[in-house]
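Morning run. Coffee first, then this:
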Amino acid sequence: MCLPRIVKIVTCRPTRDLMKENSEPLPDLSDDEFMQIFHLKRNIVKELIEELRPLIPNPRRSDGVPLTAKILITLAFYASGSIQTLVSKSPVHNVSQATVSRAVKQVTEAFDQIYHKYVKWPTQRSERLLIKAKFCNKFKIPGVLGCIDGTHVAILKPSYNSQLYNNVKGSQSINVMIVCDSDLNILCTNSSSPGSTHDSIVWENNILCKELNQLHDEGDCAYPLRRTMMTPILNTREGTPEHAYYLLHAAAHSTIERCISDLKSRFRCLLLARSLHYSPAVASKIVKACCILHNIANEANSPVPEMTLEEIRTEKLRTPQDVCLNELEMALEGNGSPSRALLEGEEFRQALINRLWMEP
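And here it is:
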């Protein structure tokens, strides 16, 4: 009866290289092999190890997994989404599932402590003006501070309030709101909403929504049309001002689509083909950690690994689609009457359409 337990302990022991604290992480791997495992450059990982070192608890036992190994284990998990698929040179080779789980939780918690250092909304006027100028130069639309969209991340069925996490596809997920700039840097996220939550509700409950309403600055039909949120006009006629606006809007909105695609390509643990085997709270922090790493990799111009055709197909097939918010909003008003905020948004959008049509 005891033999299986003894065998498991022996086979799950970390490899010798994993137990070493090296200044150079996994020196036996070439840069290409390192990139293939972690989807991050070696110098980035070295800097992360030093930054996270004070934030991660030391091993409690003399034979505990060293800090460097914990970080490598977690980064490899983020990149692959499954320890079973990692190559034999991976730092998590022959490490037990329990060890991986503990490492992921500890390192993810450490990432959560530095989230606001790397994912930052522009609070200074000069920062906002720069973002607006870049959007205007690239897409000819003035006043754009960011593009917004939602993406779902699959999780296992939670042990509590599980019905809240049932999305329209019938699977369990969290609904993640992401805002990015024209350079695909993530400016804001909300990863705490259950999969049944409509994109518009995630947005309306976010503090950024309130801040933008105050700023009156300037995204996807699932969001409410407001003076601070320009949504597309569908089914436009070619040659009309509305169609010209639609094309410009679609081009600008492609930035958030590419941002989310790059995020999930780099960190496949977020793909809908995978499922995070953690509580919603831990899964939320894993998403935030991946957003941090996305911004770091993006700034370093790190290459983005390509998804396989099967991963792309599965992502599209399993992605829940929200109903058009403006139609839903009118229905909720009763008697099909649009809200005052919606009417103000339509007036503001029409003024923008006219302006864009008149400008050369």
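The first strand starts at residue 147 and ends at 154. Good start to the day.
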